[in-house]
Every structure is written in structure tokens, then in C-alpha cells.
Amino acid sequence: MLSTRVVLIGFMGSGKSSVGRLLAKENKTLFLDTDAMIESSEGMTVSEIFSEKGEMYFRTLENDTVAWLKANVNTAVISAGGGMLVYCKALKEVGTIVYLKVPFKTILSRMTPAELEKRPLFKSPKEAEVIYNERNAIYEEQADIVINADDTIDNVLNALVSTTS
Ligand code: S3P
Q1: pTM of the full predicted structure?
Q2: CATH code at position 88
Q3: Residue 138 CA to ligand 1 centre (angstroms)
């Protein structure tokens, strides 16, 4: 049973939403995805927000979402957008920060055209790898728990269940 808010962080394509949904189900608790929350309140996709309003506007919405989570949610599994920990320092105060660590080559293999379309920051493999390397250092430094997520979804879920309960 989860006693607090668990926040899954990691690079785009690290499996935060897929495994987060399963962890929430396992614990019979709420699952929240910050990108989906922003999309539903804005009535636009993340890609549309980036192209029509710009990244800084999106980051403001992410900060608002963090404040909302802190004020309104007690127990939940939260999948955080890949840049949230970098642009919203208060994310650390939301709960236990769990980094789903996946090597860049696995991330690349998961980036189908449909996945790429949802991710405006994933402009090319070369540019994404630069961001990956910067982010990996931050994620590792800031996370309370680091999980090897380069594995089957069942194994990642088991690792999460045993480290967060
Ligand atoms: C971003 C990651 C995306 C989304 C936005 C920006 C980032 O979320 O929030 O495109 O800066 O890494 P996912 O990590 O869920 O893909």
C-alpha cells in the first residue's frame, strides 16, 4: 500500500505512464499523468501548446500543475513530463521521486513515428541525446530511488512495487 505520492520521472519514452498506470492499479490508487492533465485543461495537445504558445508557456503550466498536486492530492502515482524536474523545482516536494532509468539506445528504439509526433523536443536523435545526457545527470542526482527500467514491464513493475511500498 502506498503511503504517499510517488512521482515517476525519466526521459521521454522511459515508460513512466505505462508502468505508472500499473503501479496505481496494483495499489488501488489514483494515477495521474501531468501531460494529460495539461492537455485536458488547455484543450490542446502538448505538441500544439509548444507550437502555438511556446515552450515557456508549457513550463508555466507544468509549474501550476505541481502546485495543484501539492495542494490537492494525497495519495497517487504521478507520471511527470520528462522536463518537469528541471523546470519545476517544487516537484521534489510532491512526493517520492523515482527515476525510471533507460539507456538512450532503448529510448530511440521506442520512438515510433506516433511517439515522436507527441514529443516536440525530440527533434533528432542527435539533439535528443544531448538532452538525455544533461537530464540523466539531474535525474540521478535528484531522485530518491533509481530503477533500472530497461527491462520487461512486469520486472519494472515488481521493482517499483518493492521499492515504493
Ligand atoms: C518533455 C517531455 C514530455 C512533455 C513535453 C516535454 C521534456 O513528456 O512533457 O513534450 O521536456 O522532456 P514525456 O516525458 O511524458 O514524453
Answers
A1: 0.96
A2: 3.40.50.300
A3: 15
